[in-house]
Predict the 3D structure of the following.
Amino acid sequence: MNWIEIVSIFAATITVSFGAVGPALSEGRAVAAALDAIARQPEAAGVISRTLFVGLAMIETMAIYCLVIALLVLFANPFVH
Amino acid sequence: MIESPLAAKTLFAIGPVPITTPVVVTWGLMAALTLAGWLATRSLTLVPSRHQAVLELIVGAVEDQIRSTMRVAPHPYLSMLGTLFLFILTANWSSLVPGVEPPTAHIETDAALGLIVFIAIIYFGVRARGLVGYLKTFAQPSIVMIPLNVVETITRTFSLIVRLFGNVMSGVFIIGIVLSLAGLLVPIPLMALELLIGAIQAYIFTVLAMVFIGSAVSDGRPQGNKEGNGS
């Protein structure tokens, strides 16, 4: 095992772990705000949760990007032959 | 141990064209959906039977969603968006059949779906405003924004592709890892979670396609006069 592969594995783990932090915090804030809004206005729960789902998917895309980059590094690394 | 999620397994080849597993599954799903649609709409009556009531429920739900998201009359977009939703949903849930891997877990299928949405945005935008009118929307709010708007049109399609691919593929991948580490029957809760994620992702893909097409068609102005029934 040479250096490139060792560094690749470290890069993949660091990418996934740091990429999970931001989306986790912001998804927590989004859900908290949505629950607050539903508690104030239970009759608007349908619209709020629909918007919440779309927003959560948008936020989650950031984590998914990190996952895809990690997979590229692990499985489709251009420097490993 | 685990094969790369970015590579697809080649089953056989027709001439120079290799046919991979996702292609076979996709064609199987398309045949099943077409057959189900043909069988379900073969004998439509004014007073709905039990099957027709379920069918009308699905179509009505998609129609309501389009009306509340895009704020235009849903009819021109219903067939495309409804088909997109049903196909992605069945594709995500096809992992329930043993031995079948969902075709959306491979990026080629998602890229094809994203390309359909990309072309549909341009098509509906041009049809609603004319070619010049559609091109003018890139120069809004000012002419400086043209490069940003062009880049945004491409990147949002790309994020649509990567979102669907990442979610479905990570689910398949996690189930594979847990199965190889822990053994039989352990990944069943994860598979249940995967069903939920599959439904949510199908919904989100469709809703985002609606939002993008809606922004190309109506550009955020209130469309009270186009609505028709005013609901």
The two ends of chain A are 12 Å apart (CA to CA). The interface with chain B takes residues 47, 50, 53-54, 57, 60-61, 64-65, 67-68, 71-72, 75-76 of chain A (CB under 8 Å). DSSP finds two helices and no strands in chain A.
